[in-house]
Write a structure and sequence with these properties.
Elements: E1 25-30, H1 32-40, H2 45-57, E2 64-67, H3 71-78, H4 97-113, H5 120-132, H6 139-150, H7 155-170, H8 175-188, H9 200-217, H10 222-232, H11 237-251, E3 257-262, H12 266-285, E4 302-306, E5 312-317
Parallel strand pairs: 1-2, 1-3, 3-4
Antiparallel strand pairs: 4-5
């Protein structure tokens, strides 16, 4: 497999994040682009090519394997549009910053859960409708990734929780409390468990702060910093959704390692992994009181870059990509 040359080295503190051994389970996640190519290809040509490539590259080897999609991806594939919601962000008298963030997330969850288009019955109906327009060869993959999840009675709560978490992380809080909120969010990068909740928005916030200062702090690494910043420029909501997959490749999905198949450009893939790992490492380096065995472990994740035809052109083992911090 072709591998890219890492960008210019940056000063790196002693790495603290533990390296996890291989898990017995591995989940395959297709990003929304390659998923759309796969399920709409006539005669299932892209699906057949992907199956051949996955076997050839051996990126799905584990005692147990399966396919899955995130709640965000399910909405994207179904074409379900979620309206903007308004949640107050002014703290009440005596309310802590953490209590305010919890309040925003809880209110957002309740509002999302009440939306009729997110009702489990509505999502199941939409899934059946979308399936009816697909080639027969795509039905098995669609059922694994979309029809099956849409039959789960707790799907609305899962989706509402993910949307609410995302809403809380992207909320612009009053300047008087914004720094305290950001400091607390940074601490969340080191919380283990709840691996289905992406921290990518937190990393993006912290990266933007570093980038504003990094060129002056490490002038010899400007080229590498610029390359990484280009990869971190997220132009749309979909960019954030697909970046959730980088979180899962790095830190797993519950007890499973994750292989992501994506159409992202190779240099963007490598730099996003490097920044994601690096920012979490930097936060860990500034939290010496937290024992290393309590920090999140970098999993045996893989990101495979695909052509729209299903050909795999690059493979990036997450643990082997150097960090940018």
């Amino acid at each position: 497999m072709a591998m890219l040359i890492p960008p210019a080295d940056l000063p790196i503190p002693r790495l603290r994040l533990p390296i996890a051994p291989p898990a017995s389970r591995r989940l395959m996640i297709l990003d929304t682009n390659i998923m759309q190519y796969a399920i709409t290809s006539q005669g299932g040509t892209v699906i057949h090519r992907l199956n051949t490539e996955i076997e050839r590259t051996r990126i799905a080897e584990a005692a147990e394997t399966g396919f899955c999609m995130t709640p965000f991806q399910i909405l994207e594939v179904l074409g379900t549009v979620v309206p903007d919601i308004g949640v107050p962000t002014q703290p009440s008298k005596g309310q802590s910053r953490r209590q305010l963030l919890d309040q925003v997330i809880n209110e957002a969850r309740a509002k999302y859960a009440a939306l009729p288009q997110l009702a489990q019955s509505s999502l199941a109906t939409r899934a059946a409708e979308r399936r009816s327009y697909l080639p027969e060869e795509a039905h098995a993959l669609f059922d694994l990734c979309i029809t099956g999840p849409c039959s789960q009675t707790d799907l609305t709560l899962q989706i509402a929780s993910s949307l609410a978490w995302d809403y809380g992380l992207k909320t612009v809080f009053p300047k008087s409390i914004a720094q305290e909120i950001d400091d607390w969010l940074a601490a969340l990068l080191l919380v283990t468990g709840q691996s289905q909740l992406s921290r990518f928005r937190i990393v993006k916030r912290l990266w933007d702060v570093f980038y504003a200062k990094g060129q002056k702090l490490v002038p010899q690494a400007v080229e590498g910093i610029e390359a990484a910043n280009k990869a971190m420029r997220l132009k749309s909501r979909r960019d954030f959704l697909d970046c959730d997959l980088y979180h899962m490749a790095c830190f797993g999905w519950f007890d499973a390692d994750v292989t992501v198949l994506t159409c992202d450009p190779p240099d963007g893939i490598m730099n996003r992994i490097a920044v994601y790992k690096g920012v979490v490492e930097s936060v860990a380096a500034n939290a010496p009181d937290i024992p290393e065995d309590c920090l999140p472990a970098v999993r045996v994740g893989i990101i495979a870059r695909c052509e729209p035809t299903g050909e795999i052109t690059h493979i990036f083992p997450v643990q082997g990509v150097p960090t940018i911090v």
